[in-house]
Amino acid sequence: MSYLKFDKNLMINLEQSLPKEMLRTNQAGAYHCTTVVECNTRKQHGLLVIPIPELDNKSYVLLSSLDETVIQHGAPFNLGIHRYRGGVYSPNGHKYIREFDCESVPRTTYRVGGVILTKEKMFISHENRILIRYTLVEAHSPTMLQFRPFLAFRESNALCVANDSINSNIIPVDNGVASCLYDGFPTLYMQFSRKPEWVSAPNWYNGIEYVKDLERGVPYSEDLWVPGYFQIPIKKGESIIFSAGVSEVSPRSLSRMYDKEIATRTARTSFYNCLKNAAKQFYLKDRNDEFIISGYPWGVVLARNTMMSLPGLTLAIDHVKDFEDIMATISKALIRYFDTGETSRRIAGIDLPDIPLWGVWAVQQYAKSQGMEAAAKMYAGFVSTVVDAILGNSHPNLRVDANGMLSTMGETSPVSWMNSALNGRPVIPRSGYLVEFNAMWYNALMFAASLTEGDDAMAARRQAWLDTAEKIKPAFVDMFLNDYGYLYDYVNGSYADPSVRPNMAVAIGLDYSPLDRRQRKRVLDVVTRELLTPKGLRTLSPKSYGYRPFYLGSPEEREMALHQGPARPWLIGFYADAYLRVFGMSGISYIDRMLIGFEDEMSQGCIGSLSQLYDGNPPFQGRGAISHATNVAEVLRTLRTLKKLNV
Which helix H or strand E contains 108, and what residues bound it? Predict the structure, then answer.
């Protein structure tokens, strides 16, 4: 039985099926994303969405969808579904779905009278090409299939409007046609493994609506161009493969291409396997460099998200080489920034003040996975350079004070992961001494000293790091630990922010913490009592002023709520680390139970993955990006930690 299978009763109920989305990527920036009934509900949905580096770093929807029609005895049965103006769904093809499962590849089974047709979709790795295999399982009379492509050729966050500027020319190619609606875009090749008939029937389909965008209070209606349709007869037991890509392919190679690609897939037969598949979807190879996409369907390459998610997306699934390759790319960009002040065109936010701290933390996880000797050989130079650069005040927005503590300026623009902003100004102006910055700084100094232990050439530098860490320890406790047993979120001058936030979980979850075990436990108790949910830690306690648990409303309202209550799954990684450090082996079963809430999400939202955030109050609905790198990463890292402890 499939771990991810949905039956007819769910699929034909749009109230239940439309919220379930699926995602596939090619690990080179392209993706396919839609709902399980294949009704697009976001402007970012599409059958083939690709980056076009010649234009910019954004993604572009070329092929929005492909409507299939089964024809028997001259009667058409359209399997597609779209929402049109006024909330009307047509042509209601979901009523023919009998089953959907996503164990290996997304597989939909349709039944139309005596016809049983299966449809399986496969994205080709590192190539802008999607394959769809149709198999006629059962038919009692001659059957014809028609395929109607809906073309967009637009940026994924934009919308298409009917116009006279399109290039409507259709170019015949081997077993298919090619089209390019606008200059500057690549040509889209649509081909079949068997020769189809192309019927020209050009038309704009107007008023297609995206209900998720309607809910978000952003533009939600567009027009799509349908140049015509393919038709091809199919016999019982026969399979036909459709290819959509930006280069022409030999139709004879499609079957081999499909079989070769499916052999590399990990079946989604468990919680771990679902997250492992999700983890690899964030990989991005661009020429000689490797990156991590922050999330889908609107993620980009972000320095902070890359460092935060790198250990979980690679080491936790035994992809050590991918860690090393991605780390090589981002560490090079960070060192270049320290040396020259040059930011990265490809990696956004490399100049933010906490990036060096997260970089050292990522290397620390590598050391725990591969051993200190291997980590020292690979990264001692990087860690030493970063720590000395911070000590030398080489970062324009990090200052080491006399007490060894780090301060930063965050009143005019966001500097931490709590980066919500309106009109360029931070919603939460965290400035001065930030609790997680200083805990991570202490951790970085101690880890750097441990990493270079025994290296006589580093003795003087090690001692300087240890001396600084020794100053930080009492200063941290005096500054952040309050009489109520938890940590202030930030201290700016005479103001100590009393908001109960999850950044203190980072402080107590690090390998090296300025707090002793008793102090960690007091903080952990507050975090457990006020922040813990089945979907991670709340970004603000319900007892704190300004609590807004639901990520709903206009873009401005959502931005205001982003870090004022909704829960973040990635914080469970630090929470679990802290809990296990306080309670030891006796805490394993408790953390194992905490993960049940995330396993439940495998069949919700983006099936097999985790959303960007969840409402802070029941029923803890997933919101934001449907698949988020840091969340998948830290839950995977927690699973790996439990596995090691249970050995």
Answer: strand 107-112
Cβ neighbour number for residue 459 with a 10 Å cutoff: 12
Q: Which two tokens stand for residue 277?
A: 């598949």
In whole angstroms, what is the distance from residue 158 CA to residue 467 CA? 54
Q: Give the residue among 312, 353, 344 at the shortest CA–CA distance from 490.
A: 353
Q: Residue 6 contacts by C-beta under 8 Å, 6 or more apart in sequence?
A: 17, 20, 36, 99, 100, 101, 603
**Does the model's pTM come out above 0.90?**
yes
- The SS3 assignment for 328 reads helix
- Residues with Cβ within 8 Å of 172's Cβ and at least 6 positions away in sequence, in order, are 178, 198
Joined together, the tokens standing for residue 156 give 């994924």
Strands 171-173 and 176-179: antiparallel
Residue 325 main-chain phi, psi, to 5 deg: -70, -45
Tell me the C-alpha distance between 617 and 610, whole Å: 17
Task: Provide the total of helices (H) and of strands (E) in the chain, helices listed first.
Answer: 18, 35
Closest CA to 478 of 418, 433, 426, 419: 433
State yes or no: pLDDT of 20 exceeds 50. Answer: yes
Phi and psi angles of residue 84, each rounded to the nearest 5 degrees, phi first: -110, 175
Give the span between the Cα atoms of 208 and 91, in whole angstroms.
12
Strand 31-35 and strand 21-25: pairing?
antiparallel
Question: Are residues 587 and 642 in contact, defined by beta-carbon separation less than 8 angstroms?
Answer: no
- Three-state DSSP class for residue 478: helix
pLDDT band at 647 (very low <50, low <70, confident <90, very high): low
CA distances to 365, 449, 597 from 293, in Å: 20, 32, 25
The confidence band for 1, taking pLDDT boundaries of 50, 70 and 90, is very low
Residues 634/569, Cβ–Cβ less than 8 Å: yes
Q: Is the peptide bond before 297 cis (omega within 30 degrees of 0)?
A: yes
pLDDT in the model for residue 265: 84
State the pLDDT at residue 2.
Answer: 60
Lowest mean pLDDT segment, chosen from 2-6, 387-391, 400-404, 628-632:
2-6
Rounded Cα gap, residues 546 and 562, in angstroms: 12
